[in-house]
Amino acid sequence: MAVGQRSVAVKALQGKAAAAAAWKALSECLCLVAMLDRNIPPAAEQWMADHARAHTVRVRAPQAAGVSARSAVAKLILRAVHAIR
Question: Of 55, 47, 40, nearest to 9 (Cα)?
Fold first, then answer.
């Protein structure tokens, strides 16, 4: 994974969204904060989660938490699935 990964482009972080924020229309918003992320600072991830009033799970993992924190990611996905049932 590291071989193919590139740095985040500044434009990607400064651009405006083309559509309305989905979290505004959801009954429950969920967020996983990767505490070892080197691309998006964890404090920024946490701020976004707080702004969306999201149920937040923090993991001691890098950005690729889906690989290194599979269990926490799976639990969060299952919570999302149950929320829409």
Answer: 40
pLDDT tens profile 6-17? 777 787 778 787
Would you say 39 and 15 are in contact if contact means Cβ atoms under 8 Å apart? no
Q: How far is CA 80 from CA 45, 49, 54, 77, in A?
A: 19, 15, 12, 5
Please give the distance of CA 22 from its chain centroid, rounded to a whole number: 13
Supply the pTM of this predicted model: 0.75
What does the alpha-carbon distance between residue 30 and residue 54 come to, in Å, rounded to a whole number? 5
Residue 29 has pLDDT above 80, yes or no: yes
Both tokens assigned to 53: 């009033």
